[in-house]
Amino acid sequence: MANFSWRRVVGFLSFMVVTSVTFPATSAEKIEVGKAQIFMPQRNASSTGSKMTIYNRSEQPLIIREVTGERFKQVMLHITTYQSGKREMHPVDQITIAAHQRLALTPNTSHIMLMGFTQPLQMGELVSLTLHTNQGLVPVIARVVPMSIR
């Protein structure tokens, strides 16, 4: 007959309970970024733009306050406006996406400007960015694409 021990049974059940506990997802896990792209800068340019779609699947507004990336000396949030048919870009402190909504960031709307390259960008390469939000850090992987894809 096998050696039976209640202590072993209780220990095993305790282990199973502890290892099967799931923790609720953090808010940032409810944020998705799709089709993130960085435009290949024109020759001798010191900055470029990007585009991406951000899906806020959380119960609260998503506020992007900052974007960082090791490949850039400065990253700014911008909004594009049109005055008398002329396109103008203006820096903004934040970009907000309502709960359960999505926002396409494009050069003609709200977008991310990338300035001061720490090394040249290569067509097709993948570049890491991080969105700093009220819901935590959101990692983004963007592909460098031709400027004509706007």
Automatic annotation (TrEMBL):
InterPro entries: LpqE-like, Lxx211020-like, PCuAC_sf. It holds the Pfam family PCuAC. The lineage of its organism: Bacteria, Pseudomonadati, Pseudomonadota, Gammaproteobacteria, Vibrionales. It comes from Vibrio ruber (strain DSM 16370 / JCM 11486 / BCRC 17186 / CECT 7878 / LMG 23124 / VR1). This is Copper chaperone PCu(A)C. Signal peptide: none annotated.
